[in-house]
Design brief:
Blueprint (H helix, E strand, L loop, with lengths): L4 E6 L6 H13 L9 E6 L2 H10 L6 E4 L16 H7 L3 E4 L2 H7 L3 H14 L2 E6 L3 H5 L3 H13 L11 E4 L13 H18 L2 H6 L1 E4 L5 H8 L6 E4 L6 H8 L1
Parallel strand pairs: 1-2, 1-8, 2-3, 3-4, 4-5, 5-6, 6-7
Length: about 250
């Protein structure tokens, strides 16, 4: 099945409103931007920059998403944002279960599964992140860990459409470290995840869901990673803060 490439920039806790305007201006000034017929592009800014980026990109082929959400529609949850609020603001997608949320903020598979259900309820495209630590990889537990993470989510999220979910494989040992999984390592993990999807749903879902790689992606290593059969694009961290680098990765 043909799967259109997708590249998402995760700005994390970077870029104020004025800095978002500056990023957009630089993006518009680029001589070479990716062909929207060839690759889908998305950016997940911090909550406070969602409004500015949604307004700026309103008439452009750029998806805008959030980095997190709460699983309830409303309630006494100080500091949280619901899926319905994100959809009302104009978001297209939401990142769920990023390794920093799991590692730094103690997010569990159960909470992540509830967030997936919330995203679907509000019509947002969930970008579900899975990945192993360095110790888990050294112990030969990569497949065990990512299968547990994905299977727990699928137990509460029935997939009947390949376009209803995006996966992102992000080996935790490669995020922000300068280390990158080799193309063979990344391909093996992506192929394994695709097999789990096929077993949980059907072969069409397994073949159709887009699976992104995330972990120190740069213009220098993007092409060889993207050449692998089961790598459908990237979840880009630091490099997405530079419009030129983000465009080069997508190209």
């Amino acid at each position: 099945m043909s799967r259109k490439k997708l590249v998402i920039g995760n700005w994390k806790m970077h870029h104020t409103g004025p800095e978002t305007h500056h990023w957009w201006q630089r993006w518009q000034e680029l001589d070479e931007r990716p062909d929207p017929q060839q690759v889908d592009l998305g950016v997940a800014p911090p909550f406070t920059s969602l409004g500015p980026l949604i307004d700026l990109s309103r008439h452009h082929p750029l998806l805008v998403g959030a980095q997190n959400l709460h699983w309830e529609s409303s309630g006494a949850f100080t500091g949280e944002v619901s899926a319905e609020m994100l959809a009302e603001a104009g978001c297209d997608f939401v990142i769920i279960g990023h390794s920093e949320r799991r590692q730094l903020f103690g997010e569990t598979d159960t909470r992540i599964a509830r967030k997936l259900a919330a995203a679907r309820r509000a019509g947002l495209l969930p970008v579900l992140c899975v990945g192993e630590t360095a110790d888990e990889r050294s112990a030969g537990r990569t497949e065990v860990v990512i299968e547990e993470q994905l299977q727990h989510a699928l137990d509460h999220f029935e997939i009947d459409d390949p376009g209803a979910l995006v996966l992102a494989y992000e080996p935790i040992w490669a995020i922000g470290t300068g280390q990158t999984a080799t193309p063979a390592q990344a391909q093996a993990a992506h192929r394994f995840l695709r097999e789990i999807l096929a077993a949980a749903a059907d072969s069409q879902v397994g073949a159709g869901v887009r699976i992104l790689y995330g972990g120190s992606v740069k213009p220098a290593n993007a092409a060889e990673l993207a050449a692998e059969d089961d790598i459908d694009g990237f979840l880009v961290g630091g490099a997405s803060l530079d419009p030129a680098a983000f465009a080069a990765i997508a190209r």
